[in-house]
DNA sequence: AACATCAACGAAAGCGCTTTCGATCCAGAG
DNA sequence: CTCTGGATCGAAAGCGCTTTCGTTGATGTT
């Protein structure tokens, strides 16, 4: 590894001047600057990030943490979509992402401690559980942070407009003549799940549609299997719904599966609308009508918010709500009277 | 931020002793060791990773790079699956992953340079193009590296058994009575694509099955759209196949789409078998029969291989081939004579 | 000629930690 | 009583870089 001292020796200047030249300080003449840069290139010099960070207290890294409540981690399309978008944009600003582990080489430490240890300049969290203590700890610290997919009073957050997502779905279903509309919900412990429930209820009430208790069934942690189970409950009802708004595409796909198994055809016998617009939604049969979350946009807004805090060196608390859109496909149909 | 000097002052020992106590050196008495550890906990001491790395030349990080030839990046289920598995296991060993960007804050540098700059202890690459110059540069360097999804003579690689994957597929199709079997291939520039072609041809020849040139159609970069296009070509043939082995699930799903569009029903009129076993495969209609790549296993083997190199401090060149399995679902059917 | 100004450069301290090499002290050996 | 060896501890250098502050010499001013 070659250092600025090697460059200093080679060029005849001091290490100070070399450093300054490399960082484009104004008090170095154009000529020596060029000479230094040239021999740096020639000798294959690369700065040492650790030394730099140690001395400047800036690491040009961002810590990324995602909760794995359901064990899928990065494998979930929403997560990987957001992270990928975030990565692309953070990259443009010069930052690398570091996916941190919880365990600091056998000393049992928290995520916050780990990120502090790593000296990241900021943290990006994708977490759906507003009261995860690990996340709370990070939020309460003084490090810049942006959290995605949940609401919070104490930091920058960005999430989809879950409320009007529900409105959008119900409105659409209603416009197709449905009035008996059920909701397969995400667990209340999950922020998005909770809000989508509210969106559903609000929209239903607004139209004076009945919301029997039995029409609101908990789909748990958004998995296909849980969606399938939830749909069974709905179908066993004495007065089953003609349409169901499902809080996640995976669950919706599971729901469609059971419907099919039970001999119902979609959308003829039952309309279904999902949430997320994962890739799969476009390729199941029938193609799933769904509320699209804009993972790209979420990623860019999150980046912007984080950059702003890093630059201003102070936390800013704000909510950035990303609009959702209805993707009209094949799983919903006008109700024939 | 509190340092070992703070601990030294507080406990009355020297910073040397503090450091040794924290690192469990043998020449510190049990008593002072405990005292130091206690006040460290009490004062909320956290080591500074940059200082540590600077002094030890070990960063406990692994650089991760994936080629984005098709622009999907981490969004592709195979990629995210492997990375997630790798992350989990690397974590257990105490390593963090760093997803690096190409541009080192405006100086245009290569991935290798970037990883060198960051001082990673090893590199993990997911790349399908054996002659990507960036990847070659990393392989030729002296840093420990493991590459996934391609073959190479000069480093550790781990990839699926693409050859017997083809064998498996053709064998299955043949056992169902098919003899006119086509292949929608991945581009030859992509290692997996090339080998799967060979697997297809070998298996066909082994059974004395004809392989007309028209039966081998290039599906490009494994996208759904390209799969759909490829299938069109196949269907336009004077003597179309009764079964097609597709080199990737996305392409297979695209292929099924066109088949359906053209009024063919699967598997009645045409059997299709894919490759990957992405989640979607289980939920399209009909459920896609496919060759499953074991992303989990790939991740763990990659971790092991990399750890070994890091510990031994020398590159080891080897090929680790992960077995694939046939996931029999609904998209293939016995050929009625 | 005396002075102020400015451009260009370097000495040195500091970032937080590790590690080598001594120094010190005390128990037990001779 | 002297000597040896082991157990504990610390001084100091070093990792590679940044940044403050001072020095030097050249230029322009009056």
From TrEMBL, chains A, B:
Residues 2-56 form the HTH lacI-type domain. It holds the Pfam family LacI. SMART domains: HTH_LACI. The keyword Repressor applies. CDD domains: HTH_LacI, PBP1_LacI_sugar_binding-like. GO terms for molecular function: DNA-binding transcription factor activity; transcription cis-regulatory region binding. Keywords: DNA-binding, Repressor, Transcription, Transcription regulation. InterPro entries: HTH_LacI (IPR000843), LacI/GalR-like_sensor (IPR046335), Lambda_DNA-bd_dom_sf (IPR010982), Peripla_BP_I (IPR028082). Transmembrane segments: none annotated. The keyword Transcription regulation applies. PANTHER family: HTH-TYPE TRANSCRIPTIONAL REPRESSOR PURR-RELATED (PTHR30146:SF148), LACI-RELATED TRANSCRIPTIONAL REPRESSOR (PTHR30146). This is LacI family transcriptional regulator. It comes from Guptibacillus hwajinpoensis.
């Amino acid at each position: 590894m070659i250092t600025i001292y090697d460059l200093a020796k080679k060029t005849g200047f001091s290490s100070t001047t070399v450093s300054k030249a490399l960082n484009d300080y104004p008090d170095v003449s154009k000529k020596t600057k060029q000479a230094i840069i040239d021999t740096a290139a020639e000798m294959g010099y690369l700065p040492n990030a650790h030394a730099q960070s140690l001395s400047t207290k800036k690491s040009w890294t961002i810590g990324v943490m995602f909760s794995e409540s359901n064990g899928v981690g990065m494998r979930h399309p929403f997560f990987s979509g957001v992270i990928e978008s975030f990565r692309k944009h953070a990259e443009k600003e010069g930052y690398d992402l570091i996916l941190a582990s919880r365990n600091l080489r056998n000393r049992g430490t928290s995520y916050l401690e780990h990120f502090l240890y790593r000296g990241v300049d900021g943290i990006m969290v994708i977490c759906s559980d507003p009261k995860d203590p690990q996340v709370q700890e990070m939020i309460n610290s003084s490090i810049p942070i942006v959290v995605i997919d949940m609401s919070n009073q104490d930091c920058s957050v960005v999430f989809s407009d879950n409320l009007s997502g529900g409105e959008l779905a119900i409105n659409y279903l209603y416009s197709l003549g449905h009035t008996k509309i059920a909701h397969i919900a995400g667990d209340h412990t999950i922020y998005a799940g909770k809000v989508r429930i509210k969106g559903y209820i609000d929209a239903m009430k607004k139209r004076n549609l009945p919301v029997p208790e039995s029409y609101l069934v908990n789909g748990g942690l958004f998995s296909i299997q849980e969606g399938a189970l939830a749909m069974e409950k709905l179908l066993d009802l004495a007065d089953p719904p003609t349409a169901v708004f499902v809080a996640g595409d995976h669950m919706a796909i599971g729901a469609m599966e059971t419907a099919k198994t039970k001999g119902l055809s979609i959308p003829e016998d039952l309309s279904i609308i999902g949430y997320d617009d994962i890739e799969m939604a476009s390729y199941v049969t029938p193609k799933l009508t769904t509320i699209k979350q804009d993972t790209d946009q979420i990623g860019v807004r999150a980046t912007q918010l984080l950059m702003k805090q890093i630059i201003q060196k102070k936390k800013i608390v704000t909510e950035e709500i990303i609009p959702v859109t209805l993707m009209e496909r094949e799983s919903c149909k006008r109700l024939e009277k």
